[in-house]
Amino acid sequence: MDAVEFLAGARGVRIAYYCGFSRSAVGLLLDAEERPQRVDAEGNLLVGEAVAGAEREAQYADFDRRARKLVEEFLADGLVAV
Question: Of 3, 13, 57, 62, which residue is 20 to 30 A from 81 by alpha carbon distance?
Fold first, then answer.
C-alpha cells in the first residue's frame, strides 16, 4: 500500500471528519522540489536532475496551478454540517 492509498482509506475519512470536511481527498503533487519527479507504470517514484532558471520557474508555476486546482475542487464540495 502506497501513501496515497493509505491516506485515501479509512484514516483519511477520519482525518477529514476531524477537520470538518464531508470527505477526504488525496492528490499526488509531483515536482514540489527542484528535481522533476514522475511515477512510472509500476508506481515507482523517479527523480530527475535538478532544473534551474526559466525551466525551474515554469515547473513551480505549474505545481502551484495544480495545487490550487486540487484545493478548489476539494473545497467546492463543502463542509460537514454540525
Answer: 3
